[in-house]
Design brief:
heterotrimer; A alpha/beta; B alpha+beta; C alpha/beta; A: alpha/beta; Alpha-Beta Plaits; Rossmann fold; five-stranded parallel beta sheet; 19 helices; 42% helix; 19% strand; C: alpha/beta; 2 domains; ten-stranded mixed beta sheet; 12 helices; 10 strands; globular
């Protein structure tokens, strides 16, 4: 494998250039490596090495040329990555790069008007830094998890005293002033203010709002324990709702969370009533309730979004289960079940998004007569071994048990692809249910990363004389760099049924399994 | 609930400080959001024990350390060190007597003294006429008849060995804002000198000349001229490429300018005056013995402020490095003195070096010296660095200090005030140790200076001081 | 100051914050205008409007040249794309309007008209009073002497050259053309150079040194450093190896080498060298009498001790630039017999 990298008009001092050449040669499997300026003589010699390309021919003496030869594609690619890393590192020495602030206090000296501090440090340290940021009167987004509950209570109390946002801990998503913070999608700005104690829930709702033609004014994450833990007491949800009530850009408020602790509900409801704006509430997995006054209950993440869009337009929301006509759904179910072998009877849901997992578990638990998971509806359905599915199983592969020492499945597809490889050897699996979350900070092509293994799983089932249905949805928008349409097309290209939302995907699985039961 | 800051945020342009995963900042920067990445390191080196101490300290909500520190540092900045007189130690230094020898750093017994300090004590005893030669001096020092005490316990400071004996002349610097005074001997020049532990005849003769000719003449000139505002001199020095500890070329020139017109007015032989002017001219460090007591007199009013974690003294005796903390009274916290990382004079190497010694770190304690390295790029040559390194040294010091000096400024950093007032908490938390410039003495008594460089203080004295601070003030 | 310059400076909107240059290269004009094309840790290079030579601002003495100013520091405003204009020995610098500067620099290397700079921040360098730096290798530069038919310089004694060779062999940095000393072929570049120079221990007077221009790694390609070293040897009185006209013609050809390197070679052709090399030159020519003495007493071993500190500093210059220049110097001083030289009795 040979590769040429040309950097136009690049000036690095010789020490840098030589150290690059030394570093790449250290990589196992790299043969020849030449790092030189594109002078006439050098170009001739590089061409003599058999490393000719259009780029080389176009290069001039002030362009940096890096010519690599390695035993495989991977070796060459890793060498290229290394080169880019080294060049980036050195060029940042331009100007005053020698110094970077070491803490919040010194950072605010450099950027006195900073208004948000994002913290993604190891959990045991994150609390201290968050406290310092709050004490310096800055809003905080605390991405880290593993922060003790006492620390969360203390931080939110401090934030409340100072009137600051304390998003998190364990808050993966926010959209402030139209800017995506951490894991977030490119969503049009609009009139709906979101408050979410559920990370991928906020993403799914925001993307569904975009699909329904609405827009988001602010998306405030609170961390999963805000309403669930009575000692935290919904502090941040309430503050966020009050702030959105004040915000002239926000016409409708939507709140998304897992079911709150009983003691917390009255105060949250009072706050929502006092907001005076239409509010859509979705407690994932809670019994649906009838709305009262300005409060409306939604039964799914998608419905939360659609209801909020309708309210913002002053329209009445009329829900339906599927976007597609019933006949089409029936045909789809027929197609997906036709080739299944008799022993194929179970659903396996493999998710990267936590809230999406919860939504699927709650949607399917009753219809399927029980779904095993790590966070089951009924404690009897606690998955015995997280690494082995049993019966109907839906797992959040982003749980700590899977991610110890490995990147989260939203960033690195391998946890899920390995699990699919395992599932495809199980002849009892009828349906694979997946999610695909895109947007900032997510994997650059999550669908693409799954294609190979999905294809393999399908053909494995065929070899056994059966048919494996794969159903999923993409959480994202057209504006995301991964692009929702591209992702959807990729999944469909291997025979995956891609539904408009996670909820509809779960519902389709319900229909498929109902059809199986009647066969 | 109060939410005005949140609604305000909704109207502002987002500006983000990012700690941790850099992609989060990169994503935002791509969208045109201004971001500042923090180079985060686990506080206190990730030491769980220390973190717990921080929690204990922060749990004491009645204590306002920041306010105490603000008071302490404001006293340092209000200080107005003024050179008022030259006197004889026995007459002016509190508690000074014939059988007392003052030395640099925290307390140390004769038997534990390092080579340079031993040499200086020997020289001091010979100079006082208490011993005839080195042998007699060592015997006397060991006999218990002589009392040893740190300069710091007597409102004084001394460079390197810092030995002060009863009949030595001393500069008297008064902090006119608070009325306190500080004392320091006159600088002997470089090479074989008492403060580096040399005690040969040449050394004693020079000391005698200084006491008999130099000091009385300078004193007369000073009286004729009137008090000299040292704060002003230091501020000017920093603009002229000095940092006040290891580079004092500009400061010494300024002092000559201040004194020369009055020296020539004295009724003294020309040769005598010429020798005095030449002596000052040949010794760039002449002014060190003025910036040191100026620093000492500035920082002393910041001592003993309840709840303040400001470091009010750093000093070394060649055996140990010690610090004192404002809120912890007179107690010294010590660690082993380090070997200096630096450049050596021809013919010497690290093998010849004594451990770090001297009270001169009092300059860093008040925000000059190593803390103002960016003002003195020439200094980085000692450690083989570049002017950019000097700026980086100074920048780091802002991370462990509570204020920027309102008088001492650094031209190369857009006239930013020097980092002033070292906060013990920040040192422990960031793991950034104070940057200190220093000279290097030969490890054997009697040899003298062998080089100069940058010293790394021992971490444990800061840690122990912090533990004591939490013990005293923690919940 | 002309009106035009005054206008320019007003348009630049510089704030007065001055640096005073420690030294001023002899080829730095009192007035010029240009754009910063690159920034390194210890140097900034500037493309000068209407001139083919670049200029440099350096903070390390070793890197000083006749087209450089030695400064106490490099202000951060001197970043890539910043405009620099000077008149009356004072240079002012500031930022270009954002967005456009990178375009200029990337495409054409043509400096922007300084008048377009609307600086957010900037500063001033005063070099009017700075001492001049010429970069001559010895007190009597050959280049000017030759034309006046003055006494030719005496080349350094063999003991010194052998001493120099010893240090370079021991401490020289690889990656460039160090292998030429021992007939080793480190990489494609040194293999090419070896072929071109016909290393067989014998001098090859017909070697086309100009073909080394632009050869090898580094911002100043190793071949250029080597050629400069050979030119330096000639300045010191070694026999002529290089066809100067051929090198000159080759440099006229823009594709031949980087702008930084072309400037270095043009100065070398004019007898002006960077400070790390002049320091070595001074050592080699300084006290011939003392050295003759040294030769008698201790031979190359003593000579290498005397030379060592200066040569080690030179070898540290750049990555392999200092080494390659000294290899060239040795090449020239030994009349291309360097590989065989170590064994020649002295």
């Amino acid at each position: 494998m040979k590769r040429i990298i040309v950097r136009k008009d690049s000036y690095y001092d010789s020490v840098v250039l030589m150290s690059i050449s030394a570093e790449i040669k250290k990589i196992d499997g790299v043969g020849e490596a030449v790092v030189a300026m594109g002078t006439e003589v050098n170009l001739t010699l590089i061409k003599d090495m058999g490393l000719d390309s259009d780029e080389v021919r176009a290069a001039g003496p002030n362009d940096l040329i890096i010519a690599l030869e390695g035993e495989s594609e991977e070796v060459v690619s890793s060498a290229e990555t290394k080169v880019n890393e080294l060049l980036r590192k050195k060029s940042s020495a331009d100007g005053q790069a020698a110094y970077r602030p070491t803490g919040v206090e010194s950072a605010v000296k450099i950027m006195p008007d900073a208004n948000l501090v994002i913290i993604s440090l190891p959990g045991q340290y994150a609390g201290r830094e968050a406290r310092k940021a709050l004490q310096a009167d800055r809003h905080v987004m605390l991405f880290s998890d593993n922060v003790p509950i006492e620390t969360e209570i203390e931080l939110k109390k401090l934030a409340q005293e100072r009137g600051l946002l304390m998003m998190g801990p364990d808050c993966g998503t926010a959209m402030i002033n139209g800017m995506p913070i951490c894991f977030a999608n490119v969503v049009r700005r609009g009139e709906i203010g979101l408050v979410s104690a559920a990370g991928t829930g906020l993403q799914e709702v925001a993307c569904s709002i975009e699909k329904a033609g609405g827009g988001v004014s602010q998306g405030i994450g609170t961390g999963g324990r805000d309403l669930k833990n009575e000692r935290v007491g919904g502090t941040m949800v309430r503050m966020a709702v009050e702030a959105l009530a004040q915000d002239p850009e926000t016409k409708v408020i939507a709140v998304i969370s897992k079911p709150p602790a009983k003691a917390v509900i009255p105060s949250v409801m009072d706050t929502l009533k006092a907001a005076g704006k239409p509010c859509v509430v979705h407690f994932i997995g809670a019994e649906s309730a009838a709305g009262e006054g300005n409060i409306h209950y939604a039964t799914s993440l998608e419905e939360t979004a659609r209801m909020a869009v309708a309210l913002s337009r002053g329209e009445r929301y009329t829900g339906q289960e599927f976007d597609m006509p019933e006949e089409e759904i029936a045909a789809l179910v027929e197609r997906e079940t036709a080739g299944m072998a008799p022993q194929q009877q179970f659903v396996r849901g493999l998710f990267a998004g936590g809230t999406l997992t919860d939504e699927a578990v709650f949607a399917l638990h009753e219809p399927l007569g029980g779904v095993y998971s790590l966070d089951p509806v009924d404690p009897a359905f606690e998955l015995r071994d997280p690494h082995r599915s049993q019966g109907h199983t839906i797992v959040d592969l982003g749980e700590d048990v899977f991610t110890v020492g490995r990147p989260h499945p939203m960033i690195d597809a391998s946890i899920r692809t390995e699990r699919i490889e395992q599932e495809m050897e199980d002849p009892e699996v009828a349906v694979l249910l997946i999610d695909c979350v895109i947007g900032y900070s997510s994997h650059p092509d999550p669908a693409g990363a799954m294609l190979g293994v999905l294809q393999a799983a399908k053909s494995r089932a065929r070899e056994r004389g059966g048919y494996l249905a794969v159903v999923g949805s993409v959480t994202g928008t057209e504006g995301d760099s991964q692009n929702i349409h591209d992702q959807r097309r990729k999944l469909e290209s291997v025979g995956c049924v891609v539904m408009p939302s996670n909820y509809q995907a779960a519902k389709l699985v319900e229909r498929i399994m109902a059809r199986r039961a009647s066969q | 609930m109060k939410t005005d800051k949140i609604t305000e945020l909704f109207k502002q342009e987002l500006k983000v400080i990012n700690m941790g995963l850099e992609t989060f900042a990169d994503n935002l920067a791509e969208l045109g959001v201004q971001t500042q990445q923090v180079d985060w390191k686990p506080p206190a080196g990730g030491d769980a024990g220390l973190l717990e101490l921080f929690d204990r300290l922060e749990a004491n909500t009645e204590l306002d350390i920041d306010a105490a520190n603000a008071e302490a540092v404001s006293r340092i900045m209000q200080a107005k060190p003024t050179l008022v007189d030259i006197g004889i130690a026995a007459d002016v230094v509190p508690g000074m007597h014939k059988k007392l020898i003052l030395h640099a750093g925290p307390p140390v017994a004769w038997k534990n003294m390092a080579g340079p300090l031993r040499g200086a004590v020997i020289g001091g005893l010979i100079y006082e006429g208490l011993a005839g030669d080195a042998g007699e001096a060592e015997e006397l020092a060991a006999s218990g008849e002589i009392t040893f005490d740190p300069c710091h316990h007597h409102d004084a400071v001394g460079p390197m060995a810092g030995v002060v004996t009863a009949s030595m002349p001393v500069w008297v610097v008064e902090n006119t804002t608070f009325g306190n005074k500080a004392y320091c001997t006159l600088n002997e020049g470089l090479g074989k000198v008492l403060r580096y532990g040399a005690y040969s005849e040449e050394v004693i003769n020079r000391l005698n000349w200084m006491a008999e000719d130099l000091a009385p003449t300078l004193r007369k000139a000073l009286h004729l001229r009137g008090p000299v505002d040292i704060k002003n001199i230091v501020a000017q020095m920093l603009q002229m490429g000095d940092e006040g500890h290891n580079r004092l070329r500009a400061g010494t020139s300024l002092m000559i300018r201040e004194l020369a017109p009055y020296l020539v007015m004295l009724d003294e032989p020309k040769e005598k005056l010429s020798r005095i002017l030449a002596f000052m001219h040949e010794n760039d460090h002449f002014t060190l013995n003025i910036t040191m007591p100026a620093s000492k007199s500035s920082v002393d009013p910041a001592r003993d402020i309840d709840g303040s974690s400001l470091i009010v003294a750093m000093a070394r005796n060649g055996t140990e490095f010690g610090i004192r903390v404002s809120g912890l009274g007179d107690r010294w916290f010590t660690g082993p003195a380090s070997v200096v990382d630096g450049l050596y004079l021809p013919g010497f190497s690290a093998a010849d070096a004594a451990r770090d010694i001297g009270d001169s770190v009092i300059t860093e304690t008040t925000g000059i010296g190593g803390f103002a390295m960016a003002a003195a790029p020439a200094i980085v040559k000692f450690v083989g660095g570049t002017p950019q390194d000097a700026i980086t040294f100074t920048r780091r010091m802002y991370d462990i200090t509570v204020a920027e000096n309102d008088t001492y400024q650094i031209p190369a950093m857009d006239f930013r005030g020097t980092p002033t007032g070292i906060d013990l908490r920040k040192v422990v938390e960031t793991g950034t140790l104070p940057a200190i410039n220093t000279g290097i003495a030969h490890k054997d008594p009697g040899v003298g200076m062998v080089g100069a460089g940058l010293v790394r203080p021992p971490e444990n004295c800061f840690r122990e001081a912090f533990e004591a601070f939490v013990e005293r003030y923690g919940a | 100051m002309t009106d035009r310059n005054e206008h320019r400076q007003q348009a630049c909107g510089f704030r007065g914050r001055g640096l005073i240059a420690h030294e001023r290269g002899a080829m730095i004009p009192r007035a010029f205008s240009g754009t910063v094309i690159a920034r390194f840790e210890h140097a900034v290079t500037i493309a000068v409007s209407g001139e083919s030579l670049i200029m440099a601002l350096v903070t390390r003495r070793e890197g000083m040249s006749a087209r450089a100013l030695l400064l106490p520091a490099l202000p951060r405003e001197l970043r890539t794309g910043a405009a620099v204009c000077a008149s009356d020995g004072r240079a002012r610098f500031g930022e270009q309007p954002r967005g456009r500067s990178s375009e200029w620099v990337a495409r054409t290397l043509t400096p922007a008209p300084a008048a377009q700079a609307t600086a957010a921040a900037g500063g001033e360098i005063d070099f009017a009073g700075a001492p001049w730096y010429y970069g001559h290798l010895s007190a009597a530069p050959v280049t000017s002497c030759r034309s006046e038919q003055m006494v030719a310089p005496v080349p350094p004694p063999p003991a010194l050259i052998a001493g120099l060779l010893e240090i370079v062999r021991e401490h020289g940095r690889g990656g460039g053309l160090l292998g030429l000393l021992d007939r080793r072929r480190e990489n494609v570049f040194s293999a090419f150079a070896a072929r071109l120079l016909g290393i067989k221990g014998a001098r090859r007077s017909t070697a086309e040194y100009e073909k080394l221009v632009g050869l090898g790694g580094g911002l100043t390609p190793a071949g250029d450093d080597f050629v400069m070293g050979v030119l330096a040897a000639e300045e010191l009185g070694a026999p002529t190896l290089i066809d100067r006209d051929a090198v000159s013609r080759r440099l006229a050809h823009a594709e031949s080498t980087t702008v930084v390197s072309a400037t270095m070679l043009r100065l070398a052709l004019a007898g002006m060298f960077p400070a790390y090399l002049t320091a070595v030159g001074a050592e080699l020519t300084a006290v011939p009498a003392a050295m003759r003495d040294a030769e008698r007493r201790g031979g190359p071993a003593r000579a290498s001790r005397e030379l060592r500190p200066t040569v080690l500093r030179a070898l540290e210059y750049g990555h392999s630039s200092g080494t390659d220049a000294l290899v060239g110097l040795l090449w020239g001083l030994t009349g291309a017999r360097v590989a065989a030289f170590g064994s020649v009795p002295v």
